[in-house]
Amino acid sequence: MDINMIDLMDLEDLDMLDTTRRLDRHRHRVNPFELSDEDFRYKYRFSKRFGEKIVGILREDLVHDPRGCPLSPEIQVVCALRNWARHEIQDDTADLHGVSQPVVSRTCKKVAEILSRKSREFIKMPTTLNEQQETIRKFRSIANFPTVIGAIDCTHIRVKKVNADGGQLYINRKGFSSINVQVVCDADLKIMDIVTRWRGSVHDSRIFRECRLKQRFEAGAFSGILLGDSGYPCTPYLFTPLLNPTTPQEERYNRSHIRTRNTVERCFGLWKQRFRCLLRGMFGDIETAKKTIVACAVLHNMAIDMREDVFSGERDSIEQYSSEPIVQRYIAPSIRGNIRRRQFIETHFQ
């Protein structure tokens, strides 16, 4: 038989195999919410109740596309949830749900965009006096550090190498491309404020200096203070640890400060444990990565509100996924900040 004829037959066989695979993929599309609670949690790392809550919030926005092969809101939500939580290859998510990889990619992008638009409903600082007092009370219960309304820090989320002009500015001090994400959390590890627009080479102190939250503190919008590490300047509304404590009062202040501020490190650990895409890195375009980070913050807060447990068997490993801080240069305190901190120590840590 002619070799060319054999090659042609092989190509026809491959086409038939690919067609069969596509047909099988669509034929086996099922409603994931028909799974048992245990199977759903195994596949998506969250409870079925949590998935149903997300579908209820996004249903009106996840409109069916009448062209081609539309996906139900349920399928769209679980595709995004599995892809972000497990950080698996999109082809595997596609095969599991009877769709193609490009559909999974578009679906994740769409869900991230919708969740990021709704972020102000779920990510917000306490505004009323009662809310602020309750936040301060919970922080004080950790290590008796008074008047704390939030713990602040930055964490680097890895992104793929940016080849466009200015791409080198995404490379951080550890040598990989990232987005430097600023987070303020409360004592329950919920994210109250998030900034995702800065490249990896930007210093934490600059991100805070140019964020809207700083303006709100300076305008007197909050009755409490923030706690940050030495990468931030000490100001009247953001206290940092003392570089060289010399008295028992200063040592007590530092110990209490470290234990209380550690909530933001634990927040990063839990957040990245729930969503492995934050731990292992984003591989889409930068704008989609930023929206996905915000979307995962929204889902993280929802999970805390719903008392969603960490995936079985992984609770003990949360601490090892805590943010590994990139060493920041020490920022000297402002004169006003230094005076305010000194008065604070004399008042509360005698």
TrEMBL record:
Alphabetical keyword list: Cytoplasm, Hydrolase, Metal-binding, Nuclease, Nucleus
Subcellular location as annotated: Cytoplasm; Nucleus
Record-stated family: Belongs to the HARBI1 family.
Pfam family, one: DDE_Tnp_4
Organism expressing this protein natively: Parnassius mnemosyne
InterPro entries per the UniProt record, alphabetical: HARBI1-like, HARBI1_animal, HARBI1_dom
Coiled-coil residues: none
Predominant location: cytoplasm
Cofactor: a divalent metal cation
Gene Ontology MF annotations: hydrolase activity; metal ion binding; nuclease activity
GO cellular component: cytoplasm; nucleus
The DDE Tnp4 domain, residue ranges: 152-301
Lineage, top ranks: Eukaryota, Metazoa, Ecdysozoa, Arthropoda, Hexapoda
Name of the protein in question: Putative nuclease HARBI1
